[in-house]
Structure formats: structure tokens, C-alpha cells
Design goal:
There is one protein chain. This protein is an alpha/beta fold. It folds into two domains: about 5-135, Rhodanese-like domain (Oxidized Rhodanese, domain 1, 3-Layer(aba) Sandwich), CATH 3.40.250; about 160-280, Rhodanese-like domain (Oxidized Rhodanese, domain 1). About 30% of the residues lie in helices and about 15% in strands. It contains 13 helices and 14 strands. It has helices at about 10-15, 30, 35-40, 70-80, 100-105, 120-125, 135, 165-175, 185-190, 225-230, 230-235, 250-260, 270-280; strands at about 5, 20-25, 40, 45-50, 85-90, 115, 130, 160-165, 180, 210, 215, 220, 240-245, 265-270. The strands form four sheets. It has a five-stranded parallel beta sheet. It has a five-stranded parallel beta sheet with strand order 8-14-13-9-10. A hairpin with a 2-residue loop joins β11 and β12. α5 crosses α12 (about 250-260).
Length: about 280
């Protein structure tokens, strides 16, 4: 059972519980794909988790790169997060960027972090309370950043679930780990252009393709039975698995989908195809 995926009802029952911190992890470019009524609202008491800028290494040339321990600690503290915080993450797309944030917290040693299954659309569908985002209430005023009581979050790095380029490159020879590319079949087979301008199409040698969409159904995770069946061949493989995608976002969707169901050791290749396709010229 995957206890990291929680229902809208679970969150509603804990909405005003002390130590619960709700984080909106929506990427702005993804938010614009949603109806206007979804763009303007949030779950009550939500804090915005700026994945693209504040929780990514901006010195890295690749997008949403894994942040340093100190950067993550500082920004988490600025959001009022403590080690005792019970963190619930969601996004406006159902399931897209929130698993990345879940994985980041896990890699920083925080266990009490959960993903809202179905995200904001599911919350709205259930008829649960929402509020207008603060920046919408103050349209005519100069936008000010929300300030929270500074938290005392301290990270304990778990790099075993993070893969960098060198480790994945060395695996071409050792083949100790199985790389699973979760991009679409057409992208994996190089039949379409990559979204990133100038990036070549293709795949990592010896990798296999399981599109992340196979673990989702209308913005929610498929049943545990469905996902267990999907991962059956990987369990028989009996090798650690490394999930890769375009830029390290949807790889985390697959990682979360496998949590508690796949006994293989798991990791995410942070740079994913954006880095690999740039550095390795086949």
C-alpha cells in the first residue's frame, strides 16, 4: 500500500490540524493550461512552492535541477516548514509536478510528506472549500511575497534515490541498474521533436519505455492493482530501477506510483533526457 498518496477527503479532515502545511507545487506554464476558474483559486491556507526558481539549482544549465541542501533548507524555512510539519503537496493539473516535490522532500530526509491524489481538480470536484489566491485579491496593488514565521527545517540528505549523469553513464557498462524512460513512446523512439529547442531526439542506451501516463487515469493514480500489474516485469527483473523523463518531473510521477508496490530499489535521474541528449551525442 502506498500511504504517500492521500485522498481529498483525508486532507479535508485534517485541513485545520496543527503542523499541516499545504503546498501548491503547480508550475506556472502548466497552470495556464487549466480553466481560468482553476487558475485563480487554491485550497485554503495553501503556500506556494516555487519549484522552478526557489527549489531548483539556477546555476545549472538544465531546468528544475536538484537544489543544494542549504538552498532547500533555506527556502523550506522561508515557507514556515519544520521537521515536525505534515506536508501535503498538490498541483492544479491533477498529478504532474507534485510528485517531484514529494520526492525532493524524501531525498532531504522528510518522511511526513503526502501527495493529494487528483490535486486541485479533484478537490473542486468533491465540492470542498477553496479561496481566491492572494495575488488575485490584490490585483491593483504591487505584488508582495507572502511572509511566514520562519521554520526550522533541517535536511538529512538521502542521495541513494538521486542519480546524476556520471552514475547513469557508468551504468552503460555495468548494467547494474535498469533505466526506465517515462516519456511518451514517440519521444522515446525519436519519432517527434523534443520540446526543448535544439535538443536531439532519442533514448538512453539499454533503457526501456513505460510512459508515465500508464499510471494515471483522468489526473489521478490508477489503482494499486493496475500499477502492481504494470510493474510486474520490473519486479521479476530484480535490479534497481532508475526513472528518467524529459527534465526530472514526470520521472517522479512513476517513482511515486511504484512506492510501496515495487520492491526494487528506486532512484530518479535528475537531469534526464534534457541533460543526456545534450551531453551524449550518438
Amino acid at each position: 500500500m502506498n500511504s504517500s498518496i492521500i485522498s481529498a477527503k483525508w486532507l479535508k479532515d485534517k485541513l485545520h490540524t496543527e503542523n499541516v502545511v499545504i503546498l501548491d507545487c503547480t508550475l506556472k506554464n502548466q497552470l495556464l493550461k487549466q480553466p481560468l476558474e482553476i487558475q485563480d483559486i487554491q485550497i485554503p491556507n495553501t503556500r506556494f512552492f516555487d519549484l522552478k526558481f526557489k527549489f531548483s539549482d539556477l546555476t545549472n544549465e538544465y531546468p528544475t535541477a536538484y537544489p543544494s541542501k542549504s538552498q532547500f533548507e533555506t527556502e523550506a524555512q522561508n515557507l514556515g516548514i519544520n521537521n515536525e510539519s505534515i506536508i501535503v503537496v498538490y498541483d492544479a493539473n491533477g498529478i504532474y509536478s507534485s510528485p517531484r516535490v514529494w520526492w525532493l522532500f524524501k531525498s532531504m530526509g522528510h518522511e511526513q510528506v503526502y501527495v493529494l491524489n487528483g490535486g486541485l481538480p479533484e478537490w473542486i470536484k468533491k465540492g470542498f472549500p477553496t479561496e481566491i489566491k492572494k495575488e488575485e485579491e490584490e490585483e491593483e496593488e504591487e505584488e508582495e511575497e507572502e511572509v511566514y514565521t520562519k521554520g526550522k527545517f533541517q535536511a538529512k540528505l538521502d542521495t541513494t534515490i538521486v542519480r546524476k549523469f556520471d552514475a547513469v553513464f557508468n551504468n552503460l557498462t555495468t548494467k547494474k541498474e535498469l533505466v526506465i524512460d517515462v516519456r511518451s513512446e514517440d519521444r522515446f523512439n525519436g519519432l517527434v521533436k523534443e520540446p526543448r529547442v535544439g535538443l536531439r531526439s532519442g533514448q538512453i542506451d539499454n533503457s526501456i519505455n513505460i510512459p508515465y501516463t500508464k499510471v494515471l487515469n483522468n489526473g489521478k493514480f490508477e489503482s494499486e492493482e493496475h500499477r502492481t500489474q504494470l510493474f510486474k516485469s520490473l519486479a521479476e527483473e530484480d535490479r534497481p530501477v532508475v526513472f528518467s523523463c524529459g527534465s526530472g518531473i514526470t520521472a517522479c510521477v512513476m517513482y511515486l506510483a511504484a512506492e510501496g508496490l515495487l520492491k526494487n530499489k528506486k532512484a530518479v535521474y535528475d537531469g534526464s533526457w534534457t541533460e543526456w541528449g545534450d551531453k551524449v551525442k550518438n
